[in-house]
Amino acid sequence: MITDNEKTLRFRKFFLENFPKVKAFAWKILKSEDDAEDIAQDIFVKLWDKPELWIDRDRWDSYLFSMLKNYIYNFLAHKSVELHYIEDTAEKIRLSELDVENDMTEELYAKEINLLLKMAVEQMPEQRRKIFVLSRYRGLSNQEIADKLQLSVRTVERHLYLALQDLKKIILFLFFLCLR
């Protein structure tokens, strides 16, 4: 049975002989000094808890490097999952930003079109504007408008037709303007 002091001395010797080799091997694969050092340290911490693997062992090199290869494999697999998660998250964020941007753009276009339509209604002759407002904004029927303004239903229909034609021209103009 070995004492704790002996165990510490043997591990120190084992560590000093092998840590640089393990770290160098990990660096060759990972091309990252920090990752190579982290993996090498993890391996030696695990080995400290299992002295039977390194005390009085003549050929521990194969076990040590098998352990290292498994650590590197697991590390790379974890990095791959992590990278995939980051890419998915970035894509979701990018799409949500596009949705917000599209929503804001659509809202802005809708406000601009609404403003242009209001301006067009304000530019209509007074009688046509009154009839249009009563019909579209207040929801009155053609008969109700005719009774209220003391006009024939046919006159109301004609004014509504002309008002809608004016607005249609503006909408078509905006449509062709947006296609450019």
Q: How would you portray this structure in words?
A:
- With 180 residues, the chain is mainly α.
- It folds into two domains: 87 residues, Rna Polymerase Sigma Factor, Chain: A (Orthogonal Bundle), CATH 1.10.1740; 56 residues, Arc Repressor Mutant, subunit A.
- The protein has six helices and no strands.
- Helix 1 runs antiparallel to helix 2 and helix 5 packs across helix 6.
What's the gist of this structure?
With 180 residues, this protein is an all-alpha fold. The protein has six helices and no strands.
What's the overall average pLDDT, rounded? 84
Q: The CATH topology of the largest domain is what?
A: Rna Polymerase Sigma Factor, Chain: A
Number of domains: 2
Our estimate of the beta-strand percent is: under 5%
> So what's the CATH class of the largest domain?
Mainly Alpha
Radius of gyration: 40 Å
Organism: Phocaeicola acetigenes
Family: Belongs to the sigma-70 factor family. ECF subfamily.
Pfam family, one: Sigma70_r2
Domain RNA polymerase sigma-70 region: 16-79
